[in-house]
Amino acid sequence: MMPATNDRPGPRRAAARPFRLWREVLTAYAAPALMAGTAGVVTGQADLTVAACSSIAGTSAVVAFLVGAWLRHGGQPRRWTTALPRVVLTALLVVATAGLAAALGWFAAEWLPAHASIHAAPWLRRLRIDLPVSAALATTIVTLRWRATVTQARP
Questions:
Q1: Start-to-end CA span in the chain (Å)
Q2: Coil, helix or strand for 106?
Q3: Which residues of 8-44 are buried (b: 16+ CB within 10 A; e: fewer)?
Q4: Cβ pair 99, 21 in contact under 8 A
Q5: Is 128 helix (H, G, I), strand (E, B) or coil?
């Protein structure tokens, strides 16, 4: 008699929807806007509510578009993006996009007010956190979704 396991014959999970960049970008905007916006309303943080629909969701949508378009590479993925383990590819892209977003956030929050005629507003300081966190989350989700569809398409 064989031991009981959780393995069942047949497909283990439903097939993932095909990767559609427009859908990923829309989701990347809507999800953080709704979540952060709700958190801002519930906690009474007006600045979080405004940031939810601007810097947080906007960064997520832009990063999702850029990463998704780069991964698709005109419908022909780069060999190394499909050869690397999913976790390694995701980690590499997250470090790159979060690093760039952090640099952009620092530039906007620190360098611009010090070197240009831009007043150091509180919303500028939020960018140091909002941009890299949003970029990291959007990159992770888009990369994992893309990779799941590429892996399934292989024989």
A1: 34
A2: helix
A3: eeeeeeeeeeebebeebbebbbeebbeebbeebeeee
A4: no
A5: helix
CB atoms within 10 A of CB 88: 10
Cα dist from 155 to 150, 151, 152, whole Å: 10, 9, 8
Tokens of 16: 């993932």
What does the alpha-carbon distance between residue 128 and residue 107 come to, in Å, rounded to a whole number?
9
pLDDT tens digits for 81-104?
999 999 999 999 999 999 999 999
Residues 148/82, Cβ–Cβ less than 8 Å: no
**What average pLDDT does the structure give for the chain?**
85
Contact of 101 with 132, CB cutoff 8 Å: yes
- Contact at 8 Å (CB) between 19 and 68? yes
Does this model's pTM top 0.70? My answer is yes
Q: Which amino acid makes up residue 23?
A: R
